[in-house]
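A reminder from the course coordinator: this example appears on the midterm review sheet, so study it carefully.

Given structure:
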């Protein structure tokens, strides 16, 4: 078991990798009420392992990541007479953590909360870092807050019930962490693909820990994404556009986005071609797609609507080498010229 700390402006956050959900009570205040928020799948599969508490259940799928779901949680909290001393625990994937984290951050101007992350993506990415929000009017994560959970528990045994395409979603973010920050980690992933795919407990604990170390370090340096944290968007500029146009899963779209960003990096930083091929090969071995499934024109249209765009330019994450990245301002016209010429 490993514990890491994030020192956020809203307070400290403790991330415990390898802890079990059965120990959750040890992280909760002994006085005051506990309310759990989860989704229907997690409740069905793991509800018997929850501690004694009131449970609010939400549905599943990105379409329910709305203010209406947040309102449902508020209504239930009011019905349960939850007050400012009520502690909310979200038990679920990134979606439950985002929706419940936002509800907890705003109900009565904020009540304390923690997460038990139940998907690989939530453990290595979504639950860590204090960003909580929902989609609005067709824009992803358009409304939200920065507010750190008191704790994040990553119980690796919960991953045993995760469908393989959900595992793949998390693997894309894991490769991203290694590609932007840590060559040794990249080498280690390459050397242990079969164990990672089997979710071998020892191996996956090491992987989740290394990813959380990276994410926690970045967030500690730049909680509100004014600089360094932007690097975590590697592969996401094109990835989000592809996700929007194709309906591919987030991890699949980010996998393709990373390959395109690696191509573009060659032009910007001289990122070597053989390193791009290495990245591409690893993603393929992990069962992730790497080829662009749509016309460049469609991606460009979606890029124009990127909420992270500032005027005509985007902060684009390029690789210098495996394990080293830089953020560069890039115009839509430059991306357009590159995509048209390269694909
Ligand atoms: N806040 C952030 O910093 C941040 C970062 C990355 C992603 N996100 C958000 O996270 C969300 C995606 O997270 P996700 O991939 O965890 O999706 P998810 O929460 O939708 O979970 C995926 C599916 O797996 C099911 N599930 C969860 N745990 C399970 C388990 N242990 N066994 C079996 N099934 C299980 C869920 O019910 C759901 O059907 C997106 O909304 C994304 O925007 C947020
Ligand atoms: Zn992502």
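Designed residues:
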């Amino acid at each position: 078991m490993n514990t890491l700390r994030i020192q956020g402006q809203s307070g400290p956050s403790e991330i415990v990798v390898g802890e079990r959900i059965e120990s959750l009570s040890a992280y909760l205040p002994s006085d005051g009420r506990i309310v759990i928020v989860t989704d229907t799948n997690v409740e069905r599969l793991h509800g018997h392992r929850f501690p004694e508490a009131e449970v609010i259940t939400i549905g599943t799928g990105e379409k329910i990541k709305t203010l209406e779901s947040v309102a449902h949680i508020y209504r239930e909290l009011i019905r349960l007479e939850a007050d400012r001393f009520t502690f909310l625990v979200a038990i679920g994937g990134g979606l439950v953590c985002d929706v419940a984290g936002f509800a907890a951050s705003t109900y009565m101007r904020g009540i304390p909360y923690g997460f038990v992350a139940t998907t690989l993506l939530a453990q290595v990415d979504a639950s860590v870092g204090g960003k909580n929000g929902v989609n609005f009017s067709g824009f992803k994560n358009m409304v939200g807050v920065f507010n750190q959970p008191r704790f994040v528990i990553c119980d690796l045994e919960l991953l045993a019930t995760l469908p393989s395409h959900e595992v793949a979603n998390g693997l894309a973010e894991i490769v991203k962490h290694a590609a932007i920050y840590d060559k040794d980690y990249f080498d280690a992933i390459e050397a242990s693909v079969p164990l990672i795919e089997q979710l071998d407990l020892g191996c996956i604990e090491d992987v989740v820990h290394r990813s959380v170390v990276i994410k926690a370090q970045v967030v500690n340096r730049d909680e509100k994404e004014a600089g360094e944290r932007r690097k975590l968007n590697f592969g996401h500029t094109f990835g989000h556009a592809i996700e929007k146009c194709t309906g591919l899963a987030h991890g699949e779209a980010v996998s393709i986005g990373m390959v395109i960003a690696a191509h573009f990096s060659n032009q910007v930083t001289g990122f070597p071609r053989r390193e791009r091929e290495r990245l591409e090969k690893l993603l393929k071995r992990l069962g992730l797609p790497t080829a662009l499934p749509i016309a460049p024109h469609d991606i460009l249209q979606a890029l124009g609507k990127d909420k992270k765009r500032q005027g005509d330019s985007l902060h684009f994450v390029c690789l210098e080498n495996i394990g080293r990245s830089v953020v560069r301002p890039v115009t839509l016209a430059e991306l357009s010229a590159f995509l048209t010429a390269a694909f």
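DSSP finds 13 helices and eleven strands in the chain. The CA atoms of residues 238 and 257 lie 5 Å apart.
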